[in-house]
Design a protein that fits this description.
It is a single chain. The chain is mainly α. It has helices spanning about 15-20, 35-40, 45-65, 85-95, 105-115, 135-145, 150-165, 205-215, 235-245, 270-275, 280-295, 300-325, 350-365, 370-380, 385-395, 400-415, 430-435, 455-470, 470-475, 480-490, 490-510; strands at about 5, 25-30, 70, 100, 125-130, 165-170, 170. It folds into 3 domains: about 5-130, Rossmann fold; about 135-200 and about 225-325, Serine Threonine Protein Phosphatase 5, Tetratricopeptide repeat, CATH 1.25.40.80; about 340-510, DNA Cyclobutane Dipyrimidine Photolyase, subunit A, domain 3, CATH 1.10.579.10. It contains 21 helices and 7 strands. The strands form 2 sheets. A 5-stranded parallel beta sheet has the order 3-2-1-4-5, sandwiched between helices. A two-stranded antiparallel sheet has the order 6-7. The structure holds flavin-adenine dinucleotide, ligand DLZ and iron/sulfur cluster.
Length: about 525
């Protein structure tokens, strides 16, 4: 063996650059289930099980295709429990003096694995770019250079041109780039109980992994069973086809809707598969485009869906690697409060928070608006330390890897990057949640109450947030109106709102349930 070739848990793609570069006859593929990766965040058990099962199946597939693979299971007694440790051990065992890999999607691992001291013997290290994205980092950096504000929308148009998706020559199909004005309807009762994403019964490999995860991670937040995720490329493709057939049509309409009894609505639930490498992002977009061409889904749904993938997904990755390794520690608004227990399933009287957290616990999933406008909005309004918010999101969602999670949390949701990802913070009072969901009618708080014991916490915290950050946001043209509304409010009322908010924040700090 001349080289060891690393395949990480989120690199399960046959077209991975390291595998394309490697030689089946002379190279050894190394894959490893290790504690360092399984514990850098207290991952949801479903997330660990999904990755381990998918890794085992991918290794088996590589062997079937003629590769030599050294696979380390978590309970292997010789396991060194770090990726660098396993690479060094395998290189030593087989007398290899070169390590080949596709660059990891996280600074921590990228740095650790490019450090020659991580390996015992002198070793040549080659890190190739990850080509499973539409834009290269060089392209993104060139696009971003010199712009005062990075706007996803403009970057997205370039990605449409580059991929040719929904393009009619030089022009966007349908005559416009973006059809969002047709999207974002609240869900009505009749939309309840859609069929939901494809579910796969655990096979022997999955069952073995479920037992392992149950044994090794007994106290991680989250329900391991019932486990229904796809764990190989064929199943993930079935999940994609099912989504395109059944739910893509209404993706745009219900993109922002939230329902107590429907965790998935018209969302794809494909992010975990795309991020781990089981689905190729372009393959997903092409399937959606075809549904539009065949008249199976309207343009507003298909354009909106494709924008999330070649727009947002690519944009946040570009930002993560452009901003550098300190990004996850940013705290532009100097928020210091501890993450309340309710995020880990602790008691709360807030129906929306309880629903989002309980669904996160059972499914390792919440859709975008739950992440942004319920759990994210609350953390921002309540001034929670963004590093703690980041650790929570990184742990609890099956699709969470730092390159995509951090810009969404630190940037989009918590405004802790001071406005790199978004030009204004995503904050709202309870009225927005009430409009888009059916949570409020079953809540102990009243969404219409603006002060007093029954007042929806979002209502009082919203003003508290705006007032405590007035100096920063007042001159933002998209926020000025809110400050004018506040200034017109009766003075006694303003005092009551702020003192109610202070009481609530004190209760949060004292770990009393709100
Ligand atoms: P759908 O709603 O059906 O969207 C389709 C696809 O578009 C997704 O599968 C995903 O690949 C892509 N996409 C949509 N929105 C985004 C976005 N903002 N950034 C990147 N890709 C996007 N996404 C992750 O993949 N991992 C994360 O850890 C993650 N953390 C988030 C944290 C917060 C606070 C917020 C507001 C968003 C986060 N997102 C994250 C983005 C988005 O919420 C998820 O991609 C989406 O909910 C995944 O579910 P889905 O596959 O059903 O997506
Ligand atoms: C998330 C994760 C987990 C839980 N376990 C492993 C593992 O045991 N082995 C592995 O190769 N990868 C794992 N991963 C994914 C890595 O953490 C991921 O590759 C990096 O965070 C870079 O995105
Ligand atoms: Fe959430 Fe407020 Fe509605 Fe209760 S009233 S569900 S806390 S938005």
């Amino acid at each position: 063996v001349s080289r060891v070739v690393l395949v990480l848990g989120d690199q399960l793609s046959p077209n991975l650059s390291a595998l394309i570069e490697a030689d089946k006859d002379t190279d050894l593929v190394v894959m490893a289930e290790v504690r360092a990766e399984a514990t850098y965040a207290p991952h949801h058990p479903k997330k660990i099980a999904f990755l381990f099962a998918a890794m085992r199946k991918f290794a088996a597939r590589l062997i079937r295709e003629g590769w030599q693979v050294a696979y380390t299971r978590l309970d292997d007694p010789d396991n060194t429990h770090s990726i660098a440790g396993e690479l060094a051990r395998r290189a030593d065992q087989h007398g290899a003096n070169e390590v080949l890999m596709t660059e990891p999607g996280e600074w921590r691992l990228r740095d650790a694995l490019s450090d020659p001291d991580s390996y015992k013997t002198p070793t040549k290290i080659i890190q190739l770019s990850d080509t499973r994205f539409v834009a290269t980092q060089t392209e993104f950096d060139a696009w971003a250079e010199g712009r005062k504000q990075l706007r996803m929308e403009y970057f997205y148009r370039d990605m449409r041109r580059k991929t040719g998706l929904l393009m009619d020559g030089e022009k966007p199909v349908g005559g416009q780039w973006n059809f969002d004005h047709d999207n974002r309807k609240p869900a009505k009762g009749k939309d309840l109980f859609q069929e939901g994403p494809s579910r796969f019964a655990p096979d022997d490999t999955v069952n073995e992994v479920l037992d392992l995860v149950e044994r090794e991670f007994p106290s991680n937040f989250g329900a391991l069973r019932p486990f229904w995720f796809a764990t190989d490329a064929d199943q993930a493709r079935q999940a994609l086809d099912h989504f395109v057939d059944q739910r893509l049509e209404t993706f745009g309409d219900y993109q922002d809707a939230m329902l107590q009894d429907d965790a998935f609505l018209s969302h794809a639930v494909l992010g975990l598969y795309i991020n781990a490498g089981l689905l190729d992002p372009l393959e997903v977009c092409q399937a959606a485009e075809k549904a539009y061409e065949n008249g199976k889904a309207p343009i507003n749904a298909v354009e909106g869906f494709i924008r999330q993938i070649i727009g947002w997904r690519e944009f946040v990755r570009g930002i993560y690697f452009r901003e550098g390794p300190d990004y996850t520690r940013r705290n532009a608004l100097n928020h210091q409060r501890k993450l309340p227990d309710m995020y880990w399933g602790g008691e709360t009287r807030m129906a929306c928070m309880a629903a989002a957290v309980s669904q996160t616990r059972s499914e390792a999933y919440a859709h975008h608006i739950q992440r942004l406008m319920v759990t994210g909005n609350f953390a921002l309004l309540a001034g929670i330390n963004p590093a703690e918010v980041h650790e929570w999101y990184l742990a609890v969602y099956a699709d969470a890897y730092e390159w995509v999670e951090a810009p969404n949390v630190i940037g989009m949701s918590q405004f802790a990057d001071g406005g790199v990802v978004g030009s204004k913070p995503y904050v709202s009072s309870g009225a927005y949640i009430n409009r888009m969901s059916d949570y409020c009618k079953g809540c102990a708080y009243s969404v219409s109450a603006k002060t007093g014991e029954k007042a929806c916490p979002f209502n009082v915290l919203y003003w508290h947030f705006l007032i405590r950050h007035r100096a920063r946001f007042e001159s933002n043209p998209r926020m000025g109106q809110m400050y004018r509304t506040w200034d017109k409010m009766d003075e006694n009322r303003r005092e009551t709102v702020l003192s109610d908010a202070d009481t609530l924040l004190r209760n949060l700090s004292d770990n009393k349930p709100v």
